[in-house]
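Weekly structure sync - notes
Attendees: PM, LS, DV (DV joined late)
Agenda: review two folding runs queued last week.

Item 1: First target. Sequence and structure tokens pasted below for the record.
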Amino acid sequence: MKIRVQFYAQLCDLTGIREFDVSLPEGATIRDLLELIYSQRPALRAHDKSILIGSGVEFVDRAYKLKSGEEISIMPPVQGG
């Protein structure tokens, strides 16, 4: 299945890309997606514990099962004042 991944804020700068498409097997999870991304962009692994992952307008956890055609957002922690 094909997934579109989008990076935001400093994660976009860190990876050097804003978005890309990736192919994963049916039944893949966010955890599987992250492992694939980390293998291609190792610098991102250092931010693993703090990144937020969204599907549509919802935050999702690493056990979330991906759906074909989905857009996944990978963001730094949200801060406000």
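Item 2: Second target, run right after the first with the same settings.
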Amino acid sequence: MEAKAYLRYAKISPRKVSIVLDLIRDKPVDLALAILKYTNKAACKYLLNLLGSAVSNAQNNYNLNKEFLYVSECFVCPGKPLKRTRPGPKGRSFRILKRTSHITLMVREKQ
């Protein structure tokens, strides 16, 4: 049985999130929480909350034991970018894309 947690429209680039997701993939939950707590990346703040939510979903919805859980699957997809403008020369404006992310994290119990 697996439990999922989603985070939609996180205000961080998918490229930054995927670096941290590679660190915690296929790791036990306790080790993944420790990695996220002591890694100095902006994405760790979002992923700590998301992993806690996935573990809570596993415990409350499926009665799984936290000691046997591991991060079975985690991935990030690009969300809709926020379009902003920046002043340019001669009164023109340039477009800035503030990228967003859709993050999915699944935990599963080891057999």
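Discussion on item 2: The mean pLDDT is 97.
Action: LS to circulate a short write-up before next sync.
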